[in-house]
Amino acid sequence: xxxxxxxxxxxxxxxxxxxxxxxxxxxxxxxxxxxxxxxxxxxxxxxxxxxxxxxxxxxxxxxxxxxxxxxxxxxxxxxxxxxxxxxxxxxxxxxxxxxxxxxxxxxxxxxxxxxxxxxxxxxxxxxxxxxxxxxxxxxxxxxxxxxxxxxxxxxxxxxxxxxxxxxxx
Length: 169
Description:
Largest sheet: none
CATH architecture: Up-down Bundle
Structural class: mainly alpha
Number of strands: 0
Radius of gyration: 15 Å
């Protein structure tokens, strides 16, 4: 599992380092990619440890959708000469979510609650990029991706409600 996590993180990661791109754009790329990789890895963990069918179905959607978004963001970052980070940088950002899920008493409930919180935070980052970003292509990526993130949030709230999660409210 650990090697899969490192491989996914390395393949999909994007760093702060910039060559001619605004620092704020770099921050967006770093934050969005870290959250995206964390979503993929949490989804993979839910596919393994989840017990409820709806949790596994949601996890499948997270892996598929966030992998696709991560690939688009990585291609855009490569085009803009934003260096790909090493896996250690990205893993530090993603680790907290994964560790919280691994140690949970009720995995399904913890995963559902985590997905609500994670998507709320990610939506905030994307909305900020749309409102304040200076790179038109990154703003377009954020604008294109935001509706899917909002749909994920609504699905996560339903999942949390179904599993007794506090984050569903």
